[in-house]
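Researcher: Please predict.
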Amino acid sequence: MIKDTWARMALGEHHRRCVPALVRMRVAVQDADEGVPVPRGTVLDLAGAVDEVLSELRDGDRLLVDDAGLRRGRQVASFLGCRLNRLQVAADDVIAAARAGDLPALRRTVLTFNALAAAMWQVQLAVQEQGTRRTRPNHRGIGPAAARK
């Protein structure tokens, strides 16, 4: 799947770019006070952070799907798409809770979003690694690359 160093680094870069946004989300809900409406600026910051994370994870998905080729690309796209859809639902929940001013729900949804984003990284890395293993022979020289020799 992702065969060259540049592409592996690109996936890691997409993940790295998510971290500041995820941290901003956690800090925003930790700093919020019970019984006080969520400030509009916080709602906008949360919406921006959610968009940043989703954008980077989508770009990571595209990288993996493009690298999977025509044959496996649809399968990889479907597999990753389901997880990305679940993350989008969690993102919508974060924004809805922020707009409603429901701080307990906001804290819960931010934690859920963070957990799903981290899980998405793990899925992307596993898909990347699976593709790499499929194209390399194992330690005994058995595998697709060995069969071509």
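Model: The helical segments are 5-31, 40-100, 103-135, 144-147.
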